[in-house]
From TrEMBL:
Residues 1-24 form the signal peptide. SUPFAM superfamilies: TPR-like. It comes from Mucilaginibacter roseus. This is SusD/RagB family nutrient-binding outer membrane lipoprotein. Pfam families: SusD-like_2 (PF12771). The keyword Signal applies. It comes from the Bacteria.
Length: 566
């Protein structure tokens, strides 16, 4: 990280050198303040940090569209956020930030080989390229891939079908896994931080684990391989019913027959710091407090639909919601909520620091538990909970033959979600939770808390949403798995919950239901039965600069992502 800071000083702090030679002054062919070539070890940390920062943009999009957040009282001007009548000027950051990020990963791929001293950089760049493209496809479906990321060589890339990009991304991930399987040599100088206590992998080296020095066990090949496998499994779950990809599905399914998957929270930790411009955790900075200590977001509050999974309207959850532990997690106040689109005078306002931050209210120095833990928290890219729910769905439909049943994987997903929310920014467990006998073991530990959650909901209208063992049909099991994943990614990766809803129709929302059972905006102009959109439009820049290639006739209510078969 010191090298990165030094490079930034070079890039940002250049000064003109005084000289008496005009010819020498005008010779700009070798400018030390503007390097034309940067090594992969300097590009990768910055690229990973950008992926982490982009999570805010994707989460916010998913939170608005997917039923997690609503407009707070006292504010207006929400426009298409409430109507879903998206324009080409809406959500442009999803596109621009991702392609900027992808360019960095492609540069690393171009500069490295699948073997030799930079093989791990090459593998990580391919894994993260796939990660970014999957997020992009979830939003836009067809996007530039084959002709993209070529710089000035092709400024108007053609669009590839999303199905074809999936096939290509399987290839990228397979290549990365093969590269990781090659033994490291003494010149393979890359490290990532790990923490056995939290079962996490920090994909950016942080000061918590030696500040860039090698870990005692070397490069965590197994964990990166598990991450790549989990991304592949996520893709297989997405394409299970896509007929045009049946051959790819069967081929890639066979490759995962004995694969290991993520059992830890995959996080980025470049050394976030509180009270410093550009150095705070991006989610804390966007949703809680800015580096100057001001409240970052006052315009949003939770939806009644989401709160209903904690406060008893649909489920009771004293572990991740109300009462069992102090302080509560997930929401600051469970009575402060709204249905998207309601703008009357009774709509409550947001608290200082926002409703999604439950820690103490001391500005940039605030800290707590929950989805947003503090300015120094690592930024999750994939939760262990998400991985377990992906595995549970895959097991349900015979995609994997894990020794664990779908019921066991489902329970581990809930336990991993509880564990994540009850961990602070320094990876310390909440004391009462830590006192549970198995809480420190990882793998979604905390059996007592899970058992309590099951007991709480034994009399619920849908007890199988908490206890898969009482589900009587495959449909009920799928509903439970996807609904619990939706809860687990609440305001962490809301985009994932939104993508799963479009794919499966879960969690169930009823356009004629009350605010606890319908998350569609009351101002929706959607033509769909559920009154929701299915996508956003391509950005205006594409229609201006790549008009000959950008797909025409895109409609936010009918132009579905390829795996959305509803």
């Amino acid at each position: 990280m010191k090298r990165i800071k030094f490079l930034n000083m070079i890039l940002l702090g250049g000064a003109l050198l005084a000289t008496t030679s005009c010819n020498k002054y005008l010779d700009v062919n070798d400018n030390p303040n503007n390097p034309v070539d940067v090594s992969p070890d300097l590009i990768l940390p910055a690229a990973l940090a950008q992926t982490a920062a982009n999570n805010v943009t994707f989460n916010s999009y998913g939170a608005w569209a997917g039923g997690y957040q609503a407009n707070a009282g006292g504010y207006g001007g929400f426009g298409s956020v409430l109507t879903y009548n998206y324009a080409t000027s809406d959500n442009n950051g999803l596109w621009s930030s991702t392609y900027s990020n992808l360019n960095s990963y492609q540069t690393i791929i171009n500069k490295t080989d699948a073997t030799g001293p930079y093989k791990n950089y090459n593998a990580i760049a391919k894994i993260m390229k796939a990660f970014c493209y999957l997020r992009l496809i979830d939003v836009y479906n067809d996007v530039p891939y084959t002709d993209a990321l070529k710089g000035v060589e092709n400024l108007t890339p053609k669009y590839d079908k999303a199905e074809d990009i999936y096939v290509a991304l399987f290839g990228e991930l397979n290549a990365a896994i093969a590269s990781l399987a090659i033994a490291n040599n003494s010149q393979t100088t890359i490290s990532t931080a790990t923490s056995a206590n939290s079962q996490r992998i920090d994909i950016i080296t942080s000061g918590q684990s030696g500040g860039g020095e090698w870990e005692a066990n070397g490069f965590p090949t197994a964990k990166w391989t598990a991450f790549a496998n989990t991304l592949k499994l996520k893709m297989l779950v997405r394409i299970r019913e896509v007929g045009s990809l049946s051959s790819t599905f069967n081929t890639e399914k066979a490759k995962l027959a004995s694969a290991a998957f993520v059992t830890y929270d995959v996080k980025a930790q470049p050394g976030y710091a509180s009270g410093q411009d550009g150095k705070q955790n991006p989610s804390f900075n966007a949703y809680a407090y800015t580096y100057t200590g001001g409240s970052a977001q006052l315009t949003t509050i939770p939806t009644f639909f989401a709160v209903g999974f904690y406060d008893g309207h649909k489920l009771e959850d004293d572990v991740r919601g109300l009462g069992l532990y102090d302080p509560v997690v997930t929401y600051r106040n469970y009575t402060t909520a709204n249905q998207l689109g309601v703008v009357d005078a009774d709509v409550p306002g947001s608290a200082t620091g926002g409703q999604f931050f439950t820690g103490n209210s001391n500005g940039a120095a605030s800290a707590g538990y929950g989805t947003i833990k503090g300015a120094q928290m690592a930024q999750p890219l994939m939760l262990a909970a998400e991985s377990y729910f992906i595995q549970a769905e895959a097991k349900l439909f015979g995609i994997i033959s894990s020794g664990l049943t779908e019921d066991e994987l489902f329970a581990r997903g809930i336990r991993a979600s509880q564990r994540y929310l009850l961990t602070d920014q320094n990876e310390a467990l909440q004391p009462d939770y830590a006192a549970e006998p198995d809480a420190a073991e990882g793998n979604g530990a905390g059996q007592e808390s899970y058992d309590y959650y099951v007991e709480q909901n034994a009399g619920a209208s849908k007890p199988y949403l908490v206890d898969l063992g009482v589900a009587t049909t495959t449909a009920q099991k799928l509903e439970a798995i996807v609904t619990q994943k939706w809860i687990a990614v609440n305001y962490i990766h809301s985009n994932e919950g939104w993508s799963d809803y479009r794919r499966t129709g879960y969690p169930v929302t009823s356009p004629g239901g009350n605010e606890y059972n319908n998350f569609a905006s009351v101002q929706s102009v959607s033509t769909r039965q559920d009154k929701l959109p299915v996508r956003v439009l391509y950005p205006a820049s594409e229609y201006a600069l790549n008009a000959q290639n950008v797909p025409a006739g895109i409609n936010p209510f009918t132009s579905r992502v390829f795996y959305d078969l509803n």
